[in-house]
Design brief:
1 helix, 128 residues, alpha+beta
Length: 128
Amino acid sequence: MFVWHFILALLSIQVGLENAGIITLTSEEFGHTNDDGPKPCNSVNDCKLDECCISNDRPIGKRLSDSVDAHGTCGPMGVMNATCYVRYPSGRPTQIVYVACPCEKDLVCHGIGVIDVPLGEVGQCELK
């Protein structure tokens, strides 16, 4: 019985967040595509030098681990005007990331005021 109340509470929170203008994005919405199809990865070392490993799973809730244990898909590093997350520093990450790769090392992710719970502020790659 407690589990159902908890699930209903989570659903009502999600509906409330959507009504408050907070959005949730998926990697497909960031335009991650490959000519050969998505390349699976378990670490950033499985991807090309201009790519990172993006988790196939989104975190749920406020608890967000810095180490992602899920398998992922290689995706391109953020280029000028690409969508990014402010929480990730520029340059190729050393761990699997959620939803989108960080900006290339010569760029920085500037927030646009949109929050993706629990990942934080969404931004756009721009010159440092």
